[in-house]
Amino acid sequence: MKIGSSTASIPNPTPLLFLITATVVVLWPDASGVTALLVAAAIAVPIAVFWLSYSAVGAVVALIIASTAPRLFVEIGGLKARPEHFICGMLCISIFFFWKKRRQPVQWIWPDYLLIAYAAMNIFSSLFQSIEPRQTIKWALQQVLIILTYFFLRVLVQDRKDFRKAFMAMLVVGAVAVAYGIICFYSNLIFGTEFGMTIAQYGDLSAPYGLQYEANLLGSTSGALSVMMLVMYLYDRRRRFLVGFALAFAGMAISLSRGALGATLVGLAVVMIVGLRKGLLTRQVLANLAKATLCALLVVLPAVVPQYTERFTAMDIGEPAVDPNTLTRIVQMSSAFEEVLKHPMLGGGTSSFQLAFDWQALGEEWEDQGWIGNTEMRVLHDTGVVGLVIFIAFLVSLFRRSGKALKIKSNPELVALLASALVYCISFQATEGTLLAFPWVHLGLIGCAISVLFTSEAGNGKETHQIVLG
User: Fold this and answer.
1) Residue 134 parent element (H or E)
2) Torsion sign over Cα 304, 309, 310, 315
3) Three-state secondary-structure class, residue 425
4) pTM, whole model, 2 decimals?
């Protein structure tokens, strides 16, 4: 049966665009840039929403691509709108079309409800606990928009096929982003260019960020990608995963991030130990991994050994404040803890630390240091003990159900996501990424894996149903 007509006339948008342009020019004659932006948005947004609504796979890929490029932004109303904000904003509209088109209802799990509570805490603390509610509520809404990434994936991914496509898209997009970061690094090293680089990131050393927000996060995402590629290669001996592992490991190394380096080595060691116990590490696999690692090291070692030597030489366990980067984190954490004592239970509002950080007392060089480089402390500062407990409960519940899901049915993709999550758990002790979309994409895919695995094993009856919901 034919529904609708493909020959139906499309309304002419010219009068509407003319009305927008004329109104803005009359009310704000000097804002030619705003006029152009509004007209462009009036044209582009409906087209983009329609395109996202047309394909669930396309929406997932767009979300993943946007989450890998947080360095790009435009300022709108004093806020930095990044690609992830635009895609999430459009998905807020198109997600209802996908919800109606689902073949089966979403299997919600207990972590989903905990995450809703955490998002609500961000709004509550920003409205009622902040020293400047008008500003922090804007940041809180941005945070909630980013958290929605998790729920968008829960709706868009319906079955194992969708989950596999989303996971592979994350690997491919991640590999492209890492390759760009490597290009930035060597272009700076050879030609002296500065694109994708933070000059004097670590004292006199420059470090690449590529499309990521900053170099530490490039190291964290590259390290997590290398762990995922390693897991996939152990289960599926395809060469592309081996090449991806070498590429991602090189990307982690050129970031010059000590935290990412340590986190990645721990993650890789855990994967190797588990692989050894499960009998996945044959002599041939070990030989191939050794070759891939050697190739990656031959490419990056000549360039990074002197820089890592300088970075680790600057560290002094007895005098940690001797290292400028360590000193910065000590000052940030101390200042954040003082603010926590002022509002311990409910926090001071999303990203409110930058409002209270007294950089003037420290000097002009501290003006851009009003951020907290530790996830737990940032959550505690913004949402208090209540928010931190909810946030930890969400993570524990999610990982606990992941373990139960793997006991019911083995899944390499879920194993890879969990192993790489360990990299984030460690590296986020020295940097912070949960205000951006990429960790929520990662966690969203874990939630999708749990739901998909339990749904596919629904024949197991009551036990499976209890694990999903309880």
Assistant:
1) helix 133-156
2) positive
3) helix
4) 0.88
